[in-house]
UniProtKB/TrEMBL annotation:
Membrane topology: Multi-pass membrane protein
InterPro entries tied to this protein: ABC3_permease_C (IPR003838), MacB_PCD (IPR025857), Macrolide_Exporter_MacB (IPR050250)
UniProt protein name: ABC transport system permease protein
Family statement: Belongs to the ABC-4 integral membrane protein family.
Keyword Cytoplasm included in the entry's annotation: no
Swiss-Prot/TrEMBL keywords: Cell membrane, Membrane, Transmembrane, Transmembrane helix
Keyword Membrane found: yes
Organism: Streptomyces pseudovenezuelae
Pfam families per record: FtsX, MacB_PCD
Localisation per UniProt entry: Cell membrane
Residue ranges, annotated region (Disordered): 60-80
Length: 859
């Protein structure tokens, strides 16, 4: 009880000093809990959506996916004859059944040819209005479509694009272009996670999306009273045989949920990873806080020992303070986490993914995890300072001394730091020398961990040299104030090292990712310059296939010397070594593709791969399956016949563009795949006649004005698009790393604030002998800047080493250009000085307001 009272008294006596540590715990716990609440809420939203939109039993064509996906390589949804509907109705236990037609391989535009598809990546669905949809949609304006010229739109899409009754829209599918006017607007009765939905009448949907009457993509079946979904599925399957896919509502919902599960898990674990980094940074803050509080209470601890307190009691007293800090920070963090989740939901709403706060899901495990993490991390971080407090002897009460210095511990720390750093450096060397990326990545991960820990351990040893260099370059111009700031930073190397290490971690990751991202862009640009021989690339950024009418528009464009179509499909390979490879990609292109992509070959000529019944494979595939020029490979096409193709070329696997592709001509593919099953083009390449590049570029953009889903890019545009994509990804990562950097800044603030308290008497004496308030504040700001720049130098140096090693591994995959983004590195370094300046504002202000006489009188 005495220990608890002492801990409580000390905790509340230093509540101001504990506040920033509590904020660090709060932020870390809040990010973890916010991530868990947000992802749980998204799962709840999708669970409700899929459960509400699934009929008791769904019958679909054999080629449809388990989740009911209605796209295929040829741009048309897999269908079944309308006669299936009659058979389903005849099955036992069927109350009602209705045939529907849906497709997600469509683009919808308004009268100005602006794309109405969601920018969030959610699907655009065009289908027939049916009673199953009527359960989850309510017509709020107009009426359902009743003829070929009418369409109904969901209310969210109508609001976003300012659509109203009577407006004309266009539907672009593989069949052709279709125009209709809005006859009605329907509102979701459940949460819409961002899809854009358009409804046609059944006949129009059949002709527009499939191109033939009397077919359906799905049959929605409702069970009669007392019949379970499982029984109904069994009865319907018995009636239809094994020709079609039959699923219960739960099976359909589970398959849909599985489709989004991968994305959700990537997002969840990525965000939790960044929260873990913030926790790691917070550990340094907590260690520094308790170390300084223990040092400032040396006399108090010594007196406690003198009157009979044992080492364990002193140790326990500090740990109880940490426990209180962890509990307070974690409880506040759990509450803040719910707020973060709501904020993320609002942000997703602006991106087009609508999440309702009524679906907010806070599982009991979320606060439990938050509290456990926050408390455990705080107590563990405080263990070393607590152990150090327990070593204070009773004699310390008689003199102004802290915990006894342990020279042996310093040597052990130095030796351990050097060993860890050396081992990490060796691991990075092995990774950079690896012959396979998979092997090297393990060494890279080990090297990153070891060098990070090594730099943290050895940091105090580096303080002396690096701070003196920074002082000579930056501080000496400020005269005596600059020299005092330098000495203050050198006064406690362990404290300066820990504070700088907190900032080092975040900046090391920033530097590493910047080097990797910049090298990827530079390598891809280099590959484009060396291998791409076409002037223009036409494709959809959302991955949509190029419709035949868009391809025709490209081919009809004046000023072009050639147009190359590019398709991909799947086949079962039987290779010369007797192995069968299921669902393996194969690329079919026009013979001109050999000029559009100057792919290096290790045997044969790529042009010969476009001869009848011929193909090429890449080098790694050839070695793995004993393939040589002239070898025969049997391909059983997914939607066609079986072909025996001769290998006419073996391409290098040491490429970035189209790495791993196996080529044949479109004519060869057409020989074995029926015309109505031929895949659409994934890309189209076009080259201008000599001297007509600018004119052809403008003409192509004009020709595809009616198809806004496709982008026309020359090589400069393509490089910029690649740079923008990687830049967006890096910016998102930098935003998440900002949490760790904020916690590190709090650490600098806390260190300076406690340091000011620790030096109260010293500050009073300096003020008494003539140091002005302005000079005092400048001294503290310069000290903060030096600490921040020390951490920045460590972090940027370490991160560039990681990034350069990672690039060596990427070089094994063809990304051979190492590019150091010096503008980014310099900007981060300069920004670190501003971070230090901002962190010092409050401590410097408080130091400047000290009463001189009171400060001198402080013991």
């Amino acid at each position: 009880m005495t220990v608890l009272k002492t801990s409580m008294r000390n905790f509340f006596a230093h509540k101001g000093r504990m506040a920033l540590s509590a904020v660090a715990v709060l932020l870390s716990v809040a990010f973890v809990c916010g991530t868990l609440v947000f992802t749980d809420t998204m799962n709840t939203t999708f669970d409700k959506l899929f459960a509400a939109t699934s009929s008791d039993v769904t019958v679909s064509a054999k080629g449809a996916s388990d989740s009911g996906e209605t796209t295929s390589d040829n741009g048309k949804p897999p269908v079944m004859p309308a006669s299936v509907l009659g058979k389903v109705k005849a099955a036992d236990g069927v109350k009602s059944a209705e045939g529907t037609v849906f497709s997600t391989s469509v683009t919808v535009v308004d009268a100005d040819k602006d794309n109405l598809s969601p920018s969030s990546g959610a699907p655009t669905i065009v289908g027939s209005w049916n009673s199953n949809d009527a359960r989850t949609m309510k017509i709020t304006e107009g009426a359902a479509p009743k003829g070929s010229g009418q369409v109904m739109v969901d209310a969210d899409t109508a609001d976003k694009h300012h659509l109203k009754l009577g407006d004309e829209i266009g539907v672009i599918s593989a069949i052709g272009n279709f125009k209709a006017r809005i006859s009605g607007i329907a509102d979701f009765q459940i949460t819409n996670p961002g899809a854009a939905i358009f409804y046609l009448d059944t006949k129009t949907a059949q002709s527009t999306l499939v191109g033939e009457p009397n077919v359906y993509t799905n049959v929605n079946v409702t069970a009669a009273s007392g019949v379970t979904d499982a029984q109904l599925k069994q009865n319907v399957a018995a009636e239809l045989g094994a020709t079609f896919k039959v699923q219960t509502a739960k099976e359909t919902a589970d398959a849909n949920q599985k489709d989004v599960e991968g994305f959700m898990n990537v997002m969840k674990y990525a965000m939790l990873g960044f929260a873990g980094i913030a926790f790691l940074v917070g550990i340094f803050l907590i260690i520094n806080t308790f170390s300084m509080l223990v040092a400032q209470r040396t006399r108090e601890i010594g007196l406690m020992r003198a009157i009979g307190s044992s080492r364990k009691q002193v140790n326990r007293s500090v740990l109880v303070e940490a426990l209180l800090l962890g509990v307070v920070g974690s409880v506040l963090g759990v509450g803040a986490g719910v707020g973060i989740a709501v904020g993320l939901m609002k942000l997703m709403g602006k991106l087009g993914i609508h999440l309702s706060t009524s679906d907010l899901t806070v599982a009991w495990t979320t606060p439990a995890i938050g509290l456990l993490l926050g408390v455990v991390v705080t107590v563990l971080a405080a263990y070393l300072p607590a152990r150090r407090a327990g070593k204070v002897s009773p004699m310390a009460a008689l003199r102004d001394a802290g915990a006894p210095a342990d020279a042996r511990a310093g040597w052990i720390r130095a030796l351990l730091g050097l060993v860890l750093t050396g081992a990490g450096g060796y691991s990075l060397y092995v990774a950079a020398s690896a012959n396979k990326a998979s092997e090297g990545s393990l060494w890279l991960g080990l090297g990153v961990v070891l060098t990070l820990i090594g730099f943290v351990v050895i940091g105090p040893l580096l303080v002396g040299g690096m701070v003196r260099v920074l002082g000579a370059v930056l501080l000496r111009i400020f005269g005596p104030v600059g020299r005092m700031a330098e000495r203050n930073a050198l006064r406690n190397p362990r404290r300066t090292g820990a504070t700088g290490a907190a900032l080092m971690i975040g900046l090391a990751l920033v530097a590493c990712l910047s080097v990797v991202g910049s090298s990827m862009v530079a390598s891809a640009s280099d590959q484009l310059d060396k291998t791409v021989g076409t002037d223009f690339i036409i494709q959809s950024d959302s991955g949509q296939l190029v419709t035949p009418q868009a391809v025709k528009a490209v081919k009809d464009t004046p000023g072009l010397s050639r147009v190359t179509e590019y398709k991909t499909t799947e086949a079962d390979y039987t290779t010369p070594d007797g192995k069968t490879l299921k669902d393996t990609d194969v690329t079919a292109a026009d013979p001109t593709y050999a000029a559009d992509l100057r792919t290096k070959t290790v045997a044969g000529n790529l042009k010969d791969a476009y001869l009848p019944d011929s193909m090429s494979v890449h080098e790694k595939f050839a070695k793995a399956h004993d393939i040589h020029l002239g070898s025969k490979i049997k391909l059983a096409f997914k939607d066609g016949a079986t072909a025996n193709l001769t290998v006419r070329a073996i391409t290098s696997s040491d490429v970035v563009i189209d790495a791993g592709s196996k080529y044949m001509s479109i004519a060869t593919l057409a020989k074995y795949v029926p015309a109505d099953k031929m895949p659409l083009d994934g890309l189209v390449f076009a080259s201008a006649k000599d001297g007509q590049q600018d004119t052809a570029y403008k003409s192509l953009k004009s020709a595809l004005h009616d198809y806004p889903q496709y982008k026309v890019r020359d090589q400069t545009d393509y490089k910029q698009a690649l740079k923008d994509q990687i830049g967006q990804l890096l910016n998102m990562i930098y935003g998440l790393l900002a949490l760790a950097i904020i916690v590190a800044v709090l650490g600098v603030v806390n260190t300076l604030a406690l340091s000011v308290v620790e030096r109260t008497r010293e500050i009073g004496l300096m003020r008494a002998i003539g140091l002005s308030r302005r000079q005092l504040r400048r001294m503290i700001r310069l000290e903060s800047i030096v600490i921040a720049l020390f951490g920045a130098l460590l972090g940027l140096g370490l991160g560039m080493g990681w990034g350069a090693t990672a690039q060596k591994l990427l070089a094994l995959e063809g990304l051979k250009v190492l590019d150091i983004p010096w503008p980014t590195i310099i900007a981060v370094f300069v920004g670190s000085a501003f971070v230090g300046l901002i962190a010092a504002l409050i401590p410097a202000f408080r130091a400047g307001r000290m009463n001189v006489l009171n400060a001198i009188a402080t013991e």
